[in-house]
Design goal:
The structure is a single chain. Helix 3 runs antiparallel to helix 7 and helix 3 packs across helix 11. The protein is mostly helical. The chain has 12 helices and no strands. The protein is globular and about 55 Å long.
C-alpha cells in the first residue's frame, strides 16, 4: 500500500516538474493568462465593495465576514482550477478519441487527468485569495484558534472535492450526449448564485444550491467557521464529508457506468 502511494506521489512530482518547465518556456503567456483572471477577480471584488458600502449586512454577514466568505470561495475555486480543471477536457477527449491514449496506460484514469497538466492561469488568483483570507481573519478579532484553522483546512479540501464532483458529473454525461455545452453554461450560471449568502435567496434557490451542492463550496462551511466554535457538531460532520461523499458517489456511479459504455472511435 505504502509502496503504491510512494509510486503515485513520485510520478506526480515528475509530471509537475515537466509542467513547470513547460510554463517556463512561455513566461509571457503565463503572465497574461494570470493577469486576465486577476482583473476578473478585482472586478468581482469591486462589485462586492459597492454592495457592502450600501448595506452594512448581506444576509448574516457583515463587511469583513463577507470578505472572508468571498476569499474562501475564491481560494477553493483557484486551487481547483490549478490542479483539477482538466476534468473539463473529458468531453473533448471522448469525442476526439484521445481518451484511448489514457485508457491504455496502467494508471487510474482520473489520476492521469490530475497529473498530466497544471492550469497555471489561476496561480495569482490563489495567492491573492489567500492574502485576502488572511487579511479578513486578522480583521475579525479572536478568530484564530487551533479549531478554526483545522476546520478551515478541512472545509477547503471538502469544497474543492464538491466542485470536482459537480464537474466530473457534468463531464461524465458526455459518454451519452454529443455535447453538454448548454448544460455547462446553465451550471456555471447557477454556480454564480453561490457567490452570495444563500440566506438572501428564496427557498427554491436555496434548495437548488443544496441539490447541486454549490452551497457547500462556500456558504455552509463559511457560516460554520464564523458562527460555530465547536469542532464536534453536525455542521462540522456534514461540511467535512460532503466533498468526499459527493466525489465517491459520482465516481462510483455515472463515471464508472460511462467508462463501461465508452467505445473507442477506432472501433
Amino acid at each position: 500500500m505504502f509502496k503504491d502511494l510512494y509510486f503515485h506521489i513520485s510520478l506526480y512530482k515528475s509530471f509537475v516538474k515537466m509542467d513547470i518547465n513547460r510554463i517556463k518556456l512561455y513566461p509571457v503567456d503565463f503572465l497574461l493568462g494570470n493577469l486576465g483572471f486577476f482583473v476578473d477577480t478585482i472586478s468581482s471584488l469591486f462589485v462586492l465593495y459597492i454592495i457592502m458600502t450600501t448595506t452594512s449586512m448581506l444576509g448574516e454577514f457583515n463587511g469583513y465576514q463577507m470578505l472572508f466568505f468571498y476569499s474562501f470561495i475564491m481560494l477553493a475555486n483557484a486551487i481547483w482550477e490549478i490542479f483539477f480543471v482538466t476534468v473539463l477536457e473529458v468531453p473533448y477527449m471522448i469525442h476526439s478519441g484521445e481518451l484511448d491514449i489514457f485508457l491504455l496506460r496502467p494508471l487510474n484514469l482520473l489520476y492521469q487527468f490530475v497529473i498530466f497538466q497544471l492550469d497555471e492561469e489561476s496561480v495569482f488568483e490563489a495567492i491573492f485569495a489567500l492574502g485576502l483570507l488572511i487579511f479578513s481573519i486578522m480583521k475579525m478579532n479572536g478568530m484564530i484558534t487551533v479549531i478554526f484553522v483545522l476546520k478551515l483546512v478541512v472545509y477547503l479540501i471538502s469544497a474543492i472535492l464538491v466542485k470536482y464532483a459537480i464537474y466530473l458529473f457534468l463531464s461524465s454525461l458526455s459518454f451519452w450526449w454529443i455535447s453538454n455545452e448548454g448544460l455547462k453554461s446553465i451550471i456555471w450560471e447557477i454556480s454564480q448564485l453561490a457567490n452570495y449568502p444563500l440566506s438572501i435567496y428564496p427557498a427554491f434557490i436555496r434548495t437548488l444550491l443544496v441539490i447541486i451542492p454549490f452551497g457547500f463550496i462556500g456558504y455552509f462551511p463559511v457560516k460554520d467557521l464564523l458562527f460555530n466554535e465547536n469542532l464536534f457538531s453536525t455542521a462540522f460532520f456534514i461540511n467535512s464529508f460532503v466533498g468526499i461523499l459527493s466525489f465517491v458517489l459520482v465516481y462510483k456511479t455515472i463515471w464508472t457506468l460511462g467508462l463501461k459504455k465508452y467505445k473507442s472511435v477506432g472501433g
